[in-house]
């Protein structure tokens, strides 16, 4: 074949047949790709090769694109901006998923609670609240996370890297997102508005938590009793009543 190294009459016939459909198939896992370069990049996942190294932390990647995307977690750059609200994202897929939240259609339903979502990705993230799945583990401490980007952000706390400085006070942060959220304390900016009441928030996570007071969604369930909660912190506080754990001690008496 004049495109790759496939040889032999029988192999070549099968190989050229796949080229008619403009697809390239991985022989290890059967995934198909439209470009040979994409297949070659994918094969590095099987070989374990990670030639693209971040010059700001120990992270290494099999694809240059993934390394460039990772470096935005250091700079805080989020080039994908929603044209309907202030949200910004690193990946195009994240923006596409987010924009579905502006539509009224919610076709993805949780089979464990009444919550509905406008994208399958949101449903998968939500299901982790039920299952407690945290498959991304820090190799420097016992911390576990349900998404890879949360683990990458956490690992910056070990390196002590805080290159993002507030120009209004001495505060410094490990990533640009935290700095932007912090600056809203100075400016009073609250760009996230509830569409069900006049409430406004400086962070999107606070808005999401607040909206559960309208929907009565309680995705956090105690595994020791039937109690359910809207916020993870309330569920964790509740579980201390089962263990009799009392972490807050008075420093003035026994």
Terminus-to-terminus distance: 81 Å
Q: Indicate the overall shape.
A: globular
Largest sheet: spatial strand order: 1-2
Count of alpha/pi helices? 9
The major beta sheet can be summarized as:
2 strands, antiparallel
- Poorly predicted regions are 1-6
CATH architectural designation of one domain: 2-Layer Sandwich
Question: Tell me, what is the CATH class of one domain?
Answer: Alpha Beta
CATH homologous group name of one domain:
Classic Zinc Finger
Tell me the fraction of residues in β-strands, as a range. Answer: 5-15%
**How many beta-strand elements?**
16
Oligomer: single chain
Helix content: 40-55%
Describe it.
Strand 5 and strand 6 (88-89) form a beta hairpin. The chain has helices at residues 9-20, 36-47, 64-75, 92-99, 120-131, 148-159, 176-187, 204-215, 232-243, and strands spanning 24-25, 32-33, 52-53, 60-61, 80-81, 88-89, 108-109, 116-117, 136-137, 144-145, 164-165, 172-173, 192-193, 200-201, 220-221, 228-229. It is an alpha+beta fold and 254 residues long. The protein starts with 8 loop residues before the first helix and ends in an 11-residue tail after the last helix. A two-stranded antiparallel ribbon has the order 1-2. A two-stranded antiparallel ribbon has the order 3-4. Strands 5-6 form a two-stranded antiparallel ribbon. Helix content is 41%, strand content 13%. Mean pLDDT is 77; it is low at 1-6. Among the domains are: 49-105, Classic Zinc Finger (Double Stranded RNA Binding Domain), CATH 3.30.160; 106-161, Classic Zinc Finger (Double Stranded RNA Binding Domain, 2-Layer Sandwich), CATH 3.30.160.60. The radius of gyration is 23 Å and the shape is globular. The longest helix is centred in the N-terminal third of the chain and has 12 residues, at 9-20.
